[in-house]
Amino acid sequence: MGLTIDINTHPYLFSDVCDTEEKERFAIEITGLYHSGVGSMASQFARLDCAKIDRCVLSPLDLTTTRGRWLNTNEEVKTLEEKYPDRFIGFASVDPRREDAAEVLEDAFTRLGLKGLYIFPALQDFNPKEAYMKPLFEVCLKYDRPIISDCGCSPYPGLLTTYAHPMLWEETALRYPKLRICLTRFGWPWNREVCMLMLRYRNIYTDTSIIYLDDSRQMYHQMFEVDMGPKWIDRGFRHQVMFGSGDPGLEQIRQVNAIRALNYRESTLENILGKNALEFMGFEKEMRWVND
């Protein structure tokens, strides 16, 4: 089995960057993790080792226009990537409604060298179909960087799901066929819509950071082997689904073990657990088109 990469994680409660009580309170307020706290980097790596996860994609969150501040900054993510290059891959964030959004994103890609854009429409309170998104799409295309957009039902409190619907991305997928877009959480409860989008648009991806009912293994079985045909992923979407935990908030070890328990070909599991993330991020540019 190759590398296991968690495409959807956040350093909101990492001790290296959440280094004041005020930052901790803000992170807990946003995430709703009222019984959690700051974790040491040693504890983070121990959890990854227990889950046999090799690397994580870390994303910050720019809440400038809604909260007047960031939930981790691009610079903090870059610091973590540089300090722990064997464990972390850094993405950028930007609040699309700030006037200098395109400049902030271009700086993150050029000066900081971050590998993609993470946005959270429901929490940042914006519609991804609005015209102010176009300059960000153009920056991503210019530097061949993908987008991760939080989609579907989030575990964070106090959010409307209005801007979390996957169908808000169809026009973008059609207009920008070279723009790679990951709609997280398999879009649940709109997972069939995500399947339709992946079927029609090869530049649409999803991840597995789904809020589970009962437990993650039962939830994945219900979604992937009952609600969907049992072979849809194995035969149809094996190059477009990536492992993502949504950490913090959902337990990485439960999520990844539930993926490993699915009755798919070993090569499909390798794609989900790591290879598709490498292709999505541009590290393996032609891997998807191998006829396997």
Description:
With 292 residues, the chain is of the alpha/beta class. The protein is built from 13 helices and eleven strands. The strands form three sheets. A six-stranded parallel sheet has the order 6-7-8-9-10-11. Helix 5 (101-110) links the parallel strand 6 (92-93) and strand 7. Helix 2 packs parallel to helix 12, helix 5 packs parallel to helix 7 (134-142) and helix 10 packs parallel to helix 12. It is globular, with a radius of gyration of 18 Å. The model has no long low-confidence stretch (mean pLDDT 94).
Would you kindly provide a brief summary of this structure?
The protein has 13 helices and 11 strands.
Ordered list of secondary-structure elements with their pairings:
Layout: E1 5-9, H1 21-31, H2 41-51, E2 55-58, E3 61-63, H3 64-67, E4 69-71, H4 74-83, E5 88-90, E6 92-93, H5 101-110, E7 117-119, H6 121-124, H7 134-142, E8 147-149, H8 170-175, E9 181-183, H9 191-200, E10 204-207, H10 216-227, H11 232-236, E11 241-242, H12 252-260, H13 266-280
Parallel strand pairs: 1-2, 2-5, 6-7, 7-8, 8-9, 9-10, 10-11
Antiparallel strand pairs: 3-4
Helix pairs in contact: 2-12, 5-7, 10-12
